[in-house]
Each structure stands twice: as structure tokens, then as C-alpha cells.
Amino acid sequence: MASAVFHRTALYFMLTLLVPIFSVAQPYSNVSSGSSIIADDANGSWLSPSGDFAFGFRQISPGGGYLLAIWFDRIQEKTIIWSANRNNLAAQGSKIQISTDRGFQLDDPSGQPIWATNLASSGVVYGAMLDTGNFVLVSNGSAVLWQSFDSPTDTILPAQILNQGVGLVSSFSETNYSSGRFRLLLQLDGDLALYTRNFPMDNSIDVYWDTKTAGSGFQVVFNQSGFVFLTAKNGTLLDLLSSNGASTGQYYQRAVLDYDGVFRHYVYPKPGFTTSGRPGNWSLLNFLPSNICSLILQSSGSGACGFNSICSLGIDQRPNCFCPTGYSLANPNDRMSGCKPDFIVQVCDQESEETSHFSFVDMPNTDFPGSDYNRFQPVGEDWCRQACLDDCFCALAVYRANTCWKKKYPLSNGRVDSSLGVKALIKIRINNATLSPTGSNPNKRNRYTLIVTGSVLLGSSVFFNILTFVAAFLFFLRLKGRKSKMLRPYTDLAGIVNIRSFSFKELQEATNGFKEELGCGACSTVYKGTLKNEDGRSIAVKKLNKIAKEVDQEFKAEVNSISRTNHKNLVHLLGYCDEGENRLLVYEYMRNGSIASFLFNNSRPNWYRRVQIAFSTARGLCYLHEDCSTQIIHCDIKPQNVLLDESLVAKISDFGLAKLLRPDQTRTMTRIRGTRGYVAPEWFRNLPITAKVDVYSFGILLLEVICCRRNVETSVTNVNEVILADWAYDCHKEGKLHLLVADDEEALDDIQRFEKFVLIAIWCIQEDPSLRPNMKRVLHMLEGSVEVTLPPDPESFMN
Fold first, then answer.
1. I need a labelling partner for 599 at 20 to 30 A (CA). Which of 154, 373, 382, 624 fits?
2. Are residues 755 and 685 in the same domain?
């Protein structure tokens, strides 16, 4: 504990020495009074001396309006970091001009003002675009009359400070720069807080994260060393918002309140600092809060994702917004617009037999806090379903531990989290009928249609046959509904794409009665097989032994999710079997087995091949975490689950299976490990399980790959070398990393890369999940596009 305090105190002292110093005595190119820029197809810009930043007009979309903005000019993305007229785009022909009497004003083509600095008495002599990304207006006495740093939009940069009463407002979306739904504000009382906004009004609704520094917070500082922190008036550091500093000499940096309400710190390698020679990209360093889905629980407003929508953590802990089954986005171009039902909702009409037309979709671990209007206990789940079914106001019910909550439209604060322990019962129409036209009453419309149709058909005897058929059909539905206390869950799952559905008999024949076993685990056994009707193609058939009962009906949906993955470093899923009690998955056959046998046999693989295995595994994990439509957390990264094809290309296997296994298996597997293995510490501490558990496991795997030995090796003579991760950190601390590969000449010849990989592994296995980088950043560090800084002492965070 004392060690942790020492490290933290030292860090605070370092940071306070690096508070940015503001001065207009930086390099700049004067833009004299009278200068102007016109918004047109050939509009120019005012550049900073280095050319890093530009000030001018940016056309938001082809044929769209113009944004008066500042952006990074030397990178391909031309990322905008400030704008003057985000809520009032300028038309072509608009003009921004510096003048002595009016200061700085943006006029439309007719001369009407759109935006201005509103300086009381101007006296502006010139303006300047500085290399810090700050645009300043300067008087004759070199005093700064106005600067863009004092009026930020959604971004702050190194050398920028937020004073009390100043904050950021997110953009509306990735492509719409107008004011959005979230605000970061350093309040006048000193508390730094994230708010939801009462969009489109400017007032705030509720705080979903804050530093709890009321009475002491004074400034938010983004210093030149890349740290973002909150200080008191006397300079004492109160809260470190971003702790992984990166050199501003090598990286562009920005801290942004993104459109999804998360405050993120990004870096981008400057020209000349990318080892691959290709253009870089923005990489994430830090973010807060850790789980916005669980934090926004406001009594009014739409929550993190919009009304009737559900929020789950996705890539880089980003909120992933999606609609329940039977619903679709209100605005297909805005994933946070909320969801609308794609069916005619239940009608409150005593004459209607609506209950027979509805069923439920079960969504485990899903809740909509704050939308309930009734609560019942103690009741059973069947009772809860029927109570919602019989209530025309009930849009869904949430059930947990003998308690039933009825929810009504619009649903808000929707979230899914494995720690919730609840089940949402989404009520949808069985026939999935489309919505009635806007503004019409669906009940009246149906009656009107029946009357008109009846009047036409009454003149024919055919009408009586149709009427008899309809009456019999409705009677059957009603009778069927009464026979069951609980309607069956909705099971119209999406069709499996790009893979084949096998019968159990086919796979039994292909494996010769499941004769040749390739491997066996706690929940499955893998057999080798041959597809005779596909030119003898070899396959690996995984027979799942224990499927969780509550997800049995989601088997096809989960297989569908896995089948949509497509990456060269993932084992390809060819098909599945869902027949009776049998659940099997069919994969491509990996001829060279797992890297466990490849690494730990007597013959050591060459250093180049091991480096490629590290790269391939990182790329596969990065794809699962970053690029899948739904993030997949592997939960069991180890050498046995990384396989090699005939070309010795490494591919991750068993991804996406966590939801299919018995809920107690993960806990059982972690408890049997007597020493630190591949399992992240949060599994043992009842902390939320995120993609960072895979990062931890990859860190252990990376050490095993580059050192070519198991993480736990009891046959060593030195007790300090038993656990590879501990030994590696000791060697790093003592400056003796070469001892890890003392007899490996190839690794010693590439010692700089070896040492860098060890540092990356130590970052990955930090006890505190928030200190671990995400897999995208890990991959960039391995490839050399992101600097690898010295990791902290893991032991200093264990107390």
C-alpha cells in the first residue's frame, strides 16, 4: 500500500510541474486585420506554422452546408477539433473576416451575421493559428483578446485548460457536428461531471458520472506530456482522467466527449513516426466512464441509446445500441434515435380478443429501469407473463426473484448486462403485422376494412365460406392461448448464413462414429471427420456436452453470430447440428494442431515464426473485440485454443462459445487453478467481466510465445522462475530481460523487439483492468505504430 501511495504522489508531483504555459509567443503566422475566407469549392485556410492545424471552412457533405472549423491538417482524416457554427451551418458564399471594429464575424452571403466573437471593443490587429491548435485574436499590445481554447466544442488538446463553468458538448453523431445529447462540465462548485442533455434544449437532465470534487475542483488541464487531470486552486492534483501519457512530439492527441457520451483520449502518430510507412490512425488511450450503459438511469429522458432501445458494452467499452426483436430504429441513420415497434401494439378495447395475438421474446440479463408502472411480488414467471399479456398497457415485463415489473411505452434506460440477473419479457405480435399508417387508429382501420370488404363480398356466396374460415381460425388461436398458462417464447430466429446445417447422422458418419478424438475439454470433445461428398475435406467436429438450458433456444442465433465472423486469424465455422439433444459445431480442420504442442515440445520454433504467431493472435482478438457487429469476448485465450493450419498460420478457436456453456463452468475452471494462469483477477473478485479479460490472457500467452516456455514451470531449478509472468517482471525491473531467452540466439539478435514485447505483456497483465490497453492498442504497440511506455509495478495496485 505504501508503494502505491509513493507512486501516486510522485506522479502527482510530476504532473503539477507539467501544467501548460499559455503564451502567444509561440510560432505563428499573422493573419492581419481585413483578411477573410469565403466558403466555396476552392476555399482556402489559415495554417499553423508547422502545418499541423488549419482554420477555415469545411463542407460537411457534398452539396451540404459549411462548418467554420479548426482541424488536424496533416493527417488523412482531417479530424475537426473545434467549430464556430456547429448548430447553424453556413451557405456557400459565406465569409469569415477579421476586422478592427467588429473583431471576428461570420456572415452569410447576404451579409447577415451567423456567428461572432462579440468583443466589447475590438482593437484586433491580427489573428494567428498556433501550433497548439488554438486560434487567437491579438491586440496592438500583444494581448490575447479571444482564443478558440476558451470556447471549446467537444474536444480539448494538449496545452488547453477548462476553467470553472466551461465544458464540452458532444456532437450529435459521427457525421453530424451539431450539439448532441451529452455534456462534460466543470461546474462552478468545482465538481467535474458528465450530464445527459434535454436534447434539443440546452439544459441538463442528470449526472451519470462525476469526480465528486465540489468545493475543490478548479481546472481541467491537458498538459504537453499527454496527461489529462483535475486540479485544485493551489495546484494539487485531485483526479487523473487519463494516465497513459504519450509524447506530444511523436503523437497528435485529443480528448473528446464523443457522441455516445463517453470521454475518450486518442493519439495519432505524427508523420515520420509510423514504422510501417503507412498512414496511422487514431488509437484510444483512455476513456471514462467505464460502463455508460449501467450509469444512465434517469427518471426522464431516453437513456444512453434512445427510447425502446437497449444498450450493451461493445468495442473499447463503447455503448452498442440495438433494438429488441420486433423493433427497428426510428431513424436508420442514427443508431441512438431509439426504436419503434414493427407491429400493431395491443389495443385497449373490451370487444377485442387481442391477447391471443401476442407472445413474448425472452431477453436474459436485460432491464429497462424507470419505465415500470406496476410491481408485484411474490409471483411466478408464468403469472408475470400472463399479467402482462392481459394488460393492454404492458409493453414488456421484467422478472427477477419472484418479482414482476410491468413496463409501458416509451421504454427508457434499456441495458443488457450479465450481472443484472433479470429477464425481460418483450411482448410482440405473433403474426409480426406491420404498423398502421401514421395518425390512424389501427382498431378503427381494421373495422373499416372489414366493413368495406364485407359489403363487397356479401353479394357472393364466397363470403360465407371466407367468414367461416376466419371464424374457425380465430377460435383455434383463442383456444390454443387458453390451453397454455404461458405462451411460448418467440422463436423465429434469423437464418444461419454462409454455413451448413448438418444432421446428426451425417456427422456420425463423417467421424466414423466419433472415433478419432482430437481433444477434450470440460464442456466438449473434438473429433476428426471427413466430408465424403466434398472431395474428402477434413473437418473438426466439436460435440458440446453441456449446454445451458436457458440459452438452448438461442443456439442457432449464437451460431449465426459466430458464422458472420470472417478473419484469416479465426478458425472458420463450416456448419452446425441442432437436432434433438445434440448440439455440434463443425470447423475447418487445423492440420498442425495447437501452438501449445508447437511451442512446448523439445524442438523450439524459430523466433520469426513465434513473432508471427503473436501478431496473428493479436489480430484475431482485435477483430473479435473491435470489428464484429456484436463484440465477442473469448474468455479462454490459451495456447491450446490457438491452432495452426498447414501453412503454420495461427488462428483462434472456440470464440463465441461462452454463451453456450453452463453458467457454472467458467467459475469451476477458474477455481481449479492454484497459481496465476491465464485467468484475469476480476473473475475472482466479482468484478464486471469485459474484453480486458482477454487482454490479460493474451499477455500471458505473449510471454509464453516469445520465451517459448509455459507460464507455470515447476521443473526449473530457481524458484523465482516458476511463474513466467513474475520472473519476466523481475527481469524487467532489474534490467536483465535477456535472461528470459539466454539460449535463444535468434531472439537475442532481435533483443529490442523482444524487450518491447515483454513490456507490452506486462501492460496486458496489470491487476487493475482499467490499466490494461485494449487489443487494438496492443496490436498497434506490437506493430510499432504506438509507443510502448514503461508499465507500472503490478504489485502497487494490488492493495
1. 624
2. yes
